[in-house]
Amino acid sequence: MGKVDENRSPAVRARGITKSFGDVAALDGVDLDVAYGQVHGLVGPNGAGKTTLLGLLLGLAVADGGRLEILGTPVGRTLAVPGGVAGFVDGPGLYPSLTARQNLAALASLGRYDAGGATGVDDALEQVGLSDVAEDRVRGFSLGMRQRLGLAAALLTKPRLLVLDEPANGLDPAGKHHVHRVIAGLAANGAAVVLSSHRMDDLAALCSEVTILATGRVVFSGPVSKLAAESGELDYRLLTSDPAAAHRLASETPGLRVVPGRDPAQRLDADALVVRGPVPAVDELVVRLVRAGVALRELAPVVTPIEAAFLALTGAGITPAQAQEERTGQQERTGQEAQTGQEAQTDQENLR
Description:
- With 352 residues, the protein is an alpha/beta fold.
- The chain folds into two domains: 12-225, P-loop containing nucleotide triphosphate hydrolases (Rossmann fold, 3-Layer(aba) Sandwich), CATH 3.40.50; 230-302, Malonyl-CoA ACP transacylase, ACP-binding (Alpha-Beta Plaits).
- It contains eleven helices and 14 strands.
- It has helices spanning 50-57, 100-111, 117-127, 143-156, 173-188, 200-206, 224-229, 243-252, 279-291, 305-313, 320-351, and strands spanning 12-21, 24-34, 39-43, 65-70, 73-74, 85-88, 161-165, 192-196, 209-214, 217-223, 234-240, 257-258, 272-277, 296-301.
- The strands form three sheets. A six-stranded mixed sheet has the order 6-7-8-3-9-10, sandwiched between helices. The chain has a four-stranded antiparallel sheet with strand order 2-1-4-5, covered by helices on one side. It has a four-stranded antiparallel sheet with strand order 12-13-11-14, with helices on one face.
- A hairpin with a 2-residue loop joins strand 9 (209-214) and strand 10 (217-223).
- GO terms for molecular function: ATP binding; ATP hydrolysis activity.
- InterPro entries: AAA+_ATPase, ABC_transporter-like_ATP-bd, ABC_transporter-like_CS, P-loop_NTPase.
């Protein structure tokens, strides 16, 4: 896709958007700006209005009030968006009885756009890492493979605005690499990407700006760097060459404290240390470690600044450390559920 040069207006401009379902206000005066060449993250708890907003951007629903412009075109009260918009909500729509290649060819034909023929289909499959299974029927695909095929279908449209809902669902490390590379490449070529995900690490890796929703309202919207600066105290995990010395230096650093129950003597991973404090205090600890001749092998937040801000701004009422533990449990449960679901699907197909 050639580089998009759009300077007149943002790819998405929303002002005062409202949307209700009966007595429930899904969106309540939402403002949103998404620039070309930007990956914009959409974050919020379940029921915050993320899916509703994504549906508006894809023309799957219409707003009750407010103004919405997509790719410089005002969107009225009809289920339509301008050409150049692609993506999916609640998973891509695919034909299970067709192969991956047949799915892309069929979708291109139905959409009546020039996908570049077989060359375009093959290129899209290669970009998402599905070339080896191009002739396999989609009914046998895992959740992650279906997500990647949905992304390949979106690539065929050469989108100027790509809207994705939980694109990392079910992805293994290789699939995640392909999806991240595609999303980053689209933004680098000037397209706008709106990405909703519960995986804060993916958002932190991909997004330059983020909007946080809570009960249908925007509680933060702006650069990730600003969000990180306003996160206050975070938990950081350190790996050093001398855990005992690191623990002592951390305890002596003003504004920094070792997280209770996480010192080296109480952990199976004796090289790890978790400290809590603001960024300047962590910087001071790094200086002290270097002066003491202690090698710093790893330094990373236990919970990303995006997740910390999410917890604070949405009133989740749990600490970042608790969030990390809960996230680990959720990932394990998700993997088990995906495996169980795939086994059930296979059993059903064997009965047909």
